[in-house]
Every structure is written in structure tokens, then in C-alpha cells.
Amino acid sequence: MSAIAVAKKDFRDAVRSRTLLALTALFGLFTVGGAYLASWAAEALEGGAETTLDLIIALQTPAGYLVPIIALVVSYAAIAGERENGSLKFLLGLPHSRRDVVVGKILGRTGVVGVSILVGFAVGLIGLFAFVGSVSLVDYLGFTLVTLLFGLVYVCIGIGLSSLTRSTTKAAIGAFGLLVFFWFAWSILVQLLLYAVEGQLLMEEFPDWYVTLLSLSPDAAYGSALGAVLGESGLAMSGMYGGDELPLAARPWFGFVVLGVWALVPLALGVLRFESIDL
Amino acid sequence: MTAIDISGVTKRYGDELALEELDLTVQEGEVYGFLGPNGAGKSTTINLLLDFIRPTAGEVTVFGRDAEDGSLEIRERTGILPEGIELYDRLTGRQHVEFAIESKDADDDADELLERVGIADAADKKAGGYSKGMAQRLTLATALVGEPDLLILDEPSTGLDPNGAREMREIIREENRRGATVFFSSHVLGQVEAICDRVGILRDGELIAEDTIAGLEDAVPNRTRLRVRLDRIPEDSAAALSAVESIDGVSEVETEGTTVVVAVADGAKTTVLRTIEEHGVTVEDFETDESSLEDLFVAYTADEREVAP
Fold first, then answer.
1. Is B88 within 8 Å of A89 when comparing Cβ atoms?
2. Which domain of life is it from (chain A) (predicted)?
């Protein structure tokens, strides 16, 4: 239960951060903006829009970009910062194991990110009611839960990085380097690989390995998992790359597996490393 | 029973040798003063006890438990005041103490502890607004949580005014009377002299002396200073000076007007006084400063010469 004590303390401390307040406000602004876009799209499509699609337009884009940013900003310094200023010696002077500290930090900071997501989505919900008029609350809840999971994954990545170094600067560079990697470099590298193997970039049917690789980033997995929950295959790789026989990794439900791996691997590496270092 | 046992411990950071073959034992119920100039390896030793770092070679045990494998049990029984740390700026003093109480599964009253260290009035202020001394008091309050069997204090008087340092010593004494073993480091001797049962002096990663205060003083001869006030300056003052200087046991003679200060071995004091009076002056008054611990400390740490413990 030691991790819970650490998590509670950490939540209390981190939730008072001004940066978090600013990012949450920005997130709320984006979800409202998304809701407005959704209503505009609904009009443009002349009533052809479904509520679920509205939801997707309204929230997936702001959440897909801002949740990783918020989660990494909230977590990158969680351990490195305490090592840097010495408060980790206060924390570890108390009877907490190093693993409890890492797990407690993940729980605490996920709580903080969760508050931010819930506030943003609550604002977005109000926006949807105001601009679109009707929303499926069940879908909305599903959306929220998958997004909370997505936030947890990025917190695990951020804390994992944070436990590797004594320097918050390095942790920050690592965190945002990773973000750029997932958002841009990943798909570019996979496309380069496709070109190297197949000699072309546009194909009628893409090879399985290509679709598989593209499905393995946390962001693609978020889309897949949302697709699975909302029954909207368009969100997942499966929808984009068609094909009759989808590779395992591109199936919507597999998004949850990928998210799980992205949470557990950094966590395990972080704990292993953190347990062996000199503070 | 042994509270702390460090045996043959070496700690290396890359090429830098922080501790070399350190042996150190602290018995339960003792107040042990860990002395040495800054950079001697005191914090390194404390970090080893708390498993913040691990030894390159050798063994560290606390209450008979290995410092790494038994770290949780050790920290359950230990209160810690680390040196030069920051607290959580956005949490109040009371929240810090409550966190320590929860972490140690203790049933202390946070306000009572804050009262005891003298910052009850700042209990609801965020620690970010605390002065250095207040932060030090707050950390001490968290160290006292759960009546620890061992208190490890790294430079506890840092940031405290003389009054605060005195209160700190008083708390250390109270805790020791309750039965706690106290291990504390300092580069300030005044902190140690008054309350320690035993003292270890660390220099460049090696324990160069370890004894009671009295034992250490005995080990450093020729430290008594005899101050003699005369009614006037002798007519042939140069001859008088050289006569005093030539006495067996005198190592140094200085004059300040009608006062003569003589560094002398204990057995030669009366010879010095007699010799001075033989030069036609009257000794109006004299006093001896016993070798202060400060001199002792300087003798042990500043000299290149090694003094056998």
C-alpha cells in the first residue's frame, strides 16, 4: 500500500501545477472547437452525420495530440526532478521501495492527467450539446475511458524516461523526442522501408508487415482501441488499409494489446533501471 | 547490540575514490558524531546506510540487516534528515508530516511534531515559502515520526541560527534519552562536543580518528595555552622570552603587551610561571584554555601530519 501513499502525495503536489492548469484550459478550448467543427461538418454533410462520427471529429484529434503532451509534461520530471533537487532523498528516506515510488508516481500522475482529461471532455460534452444537439452518452463514456487509458500509457512512458536520468533537461528532450518520433518519424521510416522493399509507395493492397508496423505506435493503437469500442472501423488501420485478411496487429481490439505493451515495457525498464542506480 | 556496522567499505565514482576501506561501528543507544570537512565522504557514508547508493566493496549493515536487502525494514525504524534537499514546494508543512506518518504507518499527531520543532505557526503554509531553517525544522519533524530507533542526521544545523541549533541539540538529547541511537554528521565542532558519546573523524574518505571526546583530547598533546598577565613588561624582555622558550615542553610563545601566551605541555606550567617571575616581574593573573575541540579538529584534519588515534 506504500505506492498508494506515494500516489496520493504525488497527486496533491502535481495537481497544483500551473502548467497543468494552462494545458487543461487549452484542452477544453480544443474540445469545444472540435464540437463546433463537428456541428459545421454535420451541416455540410446535410444531416448525413451520425452522432458517433460527430464525436470522433469533435474529440479524437484534440485528444490524440493534447493527451500525450499533457501526460508527458506532467510526468517527465516526476522522478528526474526529485533526483535533481534532492527531495527524492526525503521520499526514499521513508520506508518506500523504489518500485513503490515508480508505481506510485504513475498512479498519482495518471490521476492528474485524468482530471485534465475529464475536465476537457466535460467542456467538450457541453460544447457538443450546444452545437450538435445530441450525443450518445454511452459512446462518450467509452471514448473517455479509452482516452484515460491512452493518458496512462503516455504517463508510463514519461515516468519510465524520468527514472532513467538525473537531469530534467534530458528527460524533457527524451519525452519530446519520442513524441516527434511517434507522430512523424515512425510513419516516415515505415514508408521508407516500404519503398526500399517494394520500390513504390502507392499500392492497391499494402503488405501485411507494413500495416502491422503502422499499427504498433501508441497513437495508432489509440485509434484502433477507439474503433473497437465505438464500432467505427474507420478509426483503425483496418479501415484505412482495407484488405480482406487483416494482419493481427491491425485489428481494432489489438489496439488494447499494443497500448498495454506501451504501458508495461517503459514501466518495467524504468523500475529495473531505477532499482539499480545510485541516487 | 550494534546499530550500524560498516566494514571494509569502499565507494568509487568512476575514478574518484569517495570512501576507502571504511570501518565504523555504532552501538545501540549511542550518540555518534561523524566529523570531517566538507567533501570528506560523510554524506556518501550516510547515503550508503540508507541504500541511496551501493558500496563498490565491503559490507554495510544497520540493526544487523544488510543495507540494500533490508533497506525497507531499516527505514521503517529510522528517521532521516538528509542534507541540502528541497521539499515539495506546493505542499504545506502539515501535509509533509502527515505523509511521513502515513508512510511509516505511525500514529503521531502532525501538529504536535510541528510544535516540537517550533514551526507550528507555519503548519498550513506551503513549504515553498519556508526559509532554509524552517525547511530544516520541518524535515526534522518528519524524521521524528514513529519514534525511530535510529536517527540519521546529515549536517542537522544547516540553515539554523544558534538558537535553532541549540533546540536541535536538545531534541537530539531527548530522542537519545528515549532510547534512540543517533548518528549525525557535522563539520562544525560545537555541535558535536556537547552531545556526542563518541566521535569519528573522516578525512578524504578515511576514518582517521575515532574515540570519545576526552580520548581524542588526550591523543593530542601540547595543546594547552597558558595566558599570563604581568604587572609590567620585564626590563630585559628578550632574555625573558628566550628563557621561557627554552623550557622543556613549551612549543610557542607570544606576547600581547603585558600578556604572554605560552603553548605548553601540562607538566611544565609551573616552570613557566616561575621562570617569568625570575625576571623581576609579578604575575598578576593567569589562565589556561584547555585544548578546544576546534584545535583538535584542525590538528586532525588540516595538518598533513597524521595523528594516531
1. no
2. Archaea
Strand partners, B152: B80, B183
pLDDT at res. A177 = 93
Please tell me the distance in Å from B127's CA to the nearest CA on chain A. Answer: 11
Task: Tell me whether residues A95 and B103 touch, CB distance under 8 A.
Answer: yes
CB contact under 8 A, A93 and B99: no
Distance of alpha carbon B65 from its chain centroid, rounded?
26
CATH of the domain at B247: 3.30.70.100
Q: How many other CB atoms sit within 10 Å of the CB of residue B235?
A: 10
Q: Identify the domain containing residue B255 by its residue range.
A: 221-291
Q: What DSSP letter does each residue of A119-147 carry, written as one string?
A: HHHHHHHHHHHHHT----HHHHHHHHHHH
* Distance in Å from the first CA to the final CA of chain B: 24
Domain co-membership, B104 together with B168: yes
- How would DSSP label each residue in A54-75? HHHHHHHHHHHHHHHHHHHHHH
Instruction: Work out the percent of chain B whose per-residue pLDDT is above 70.
Output: 91
- The pLDDT tens digits of the residues spanning B217-250 come to 776 655 577 888 888 888 888 888 888 888 887 8
Q: Do B80 and A93 touch (CB under 8 A)?
A: yes
pTM comes to 0.82
Checking DSSP bridges between strand B150-154 and strand B283-289, what pairing results, if any? Answer: unpaired
> B49: domain CATH number?
3.40.50.300
> Side chain identity at B31, as an amino acid letter?
V
Closest B-chain CA to A86: B85
Rounded distance, CA B258 to CA B25, Å?
A: 49
Distances (CA, A) of A77 to A82, A133, A244, A245: 8, 41, 45, 43
**pLDDT at residue B304, rounded to an integer:** 45
CA distance B146 to B102: 10
Cβ-nearest to B85 among A86, A95, A278: A86
Q: Residue B86: which of A16, A87, A92 has the nearest Cβ? A: A87
